[in-house]
Write a structure and sequence with these properties.
By secondary structure, the chain is of the alpha+beta class. 16% of the residues lie in helices and 25% in strands.
Length: 253
């Protein structure tokens, strides 16, 4: 009995265009491209401005107060001031520490300001540092205490012997104020027997408003609450000179 032979099967020649090979190559190539993209993005930096030194709130800054820093942060150009933009004189509205990147939101338009030095001899002021907020009072023997500057940021502090004093102890602070406020300071300093005192402000509560100064330079009657201890009497009625017609307590005609 004969056994039939199996039907022959045609052997396909090997093909180089294999679907599995193509998929494997595509995965490898995709991984390489993603890795290159991530590596390139990690090395990409943006040039932005950073503070070259501590900047006090209210201080006017220019490019001399800044330095260029290279950072790799998402959205850095939309958040921080790019180094490609030379900053016009602007005012910082909050303290910026040395080396800190300067946010766009920390800069504002710089209004007209005047820089003026105020000297405080002896113990008429506590320890004051650059960036502190202070209140400045004035008084003399005739008139009650008046607020000259209710809330101002110290731009610089000078020790005794640095030019503000000829001798003795004391400090002098440099502040940047509006021209009308600078006029108040000059008027207070020119008062006969004027005594200037300063206090450091803390917290966020609004400061005591400035008191009126007459055209002759003396404070008007009625001192604000919170005046420093040792100041002249704050009750205008108790001070005869407050209504004596010598210009103290009333605007000059």
């Amino acid at each position: 009995m004969s056994v039939p032979s199996p039907a022959p099967r045609r052997v396909r020649p090997p093909r180089w265009l294999d679907l599995r090979l193509i998929l494997g190559l595509a995965l490898v190539l995709g991984s390489v491209l993603v890795g290159v993209r991530v590596f390139t993005a990690a090395r990409h930096t943006e040039r932005v401005w950073a503070a070259a030194h501590d900047l006090a709130a209210g201080e006017t800054v220019t490019s001399a107060d800044l330095r260029v820093a290279e950072v790799s942060l998402p959205g850095s150009l939309s958040t921080y001031l790019p180094a490609s933009r030379v900053p016009d004189p602007a005012t910082v509205n909050r303290p910026v520490h040395a080396g800190e990147l300067v946010p766009r939101s920390a800069l504002g338009v710089s209004p007209a300001r005047t820089t003026i030095t105020i000297a405080f001899p002896g113990d008429n002021a506590p320890r004051i540092h650059t960036g502190d907020r202070i209140t400045v009072w004035v008084s003399n023997a005739k008139c009650p205490v008046a607020v000259v500057l209710p809330d101002v940021v110290v731009q610089q502090v000078q020790a005794a012997g640095s030019g503000a004093f000829s001798g003795g102890s004391g400090i002098a602070v440099v502040v940047r104020v509006e021209p009308t406020e600078a006029e108040r300071v000059v008027r207070a300093q020119a008062m006969d027997g004027a005594v200037l005192r300063a206090g450091v402000l803390t917290g966020t509560a609004p400061a005591t408003p400035a008191s009126g100064l007459t055209a002759s330079g003396v404070p008007s009657s009625g001192a604000p609450s919170g005046a420093p201890s040792g100041a002249a009497p704050t009750n205008a009625a108790a001070s005869p000179s407050a209504t004596s017609g010598d210009g103290c307590g009333a605007e000059s005609p």
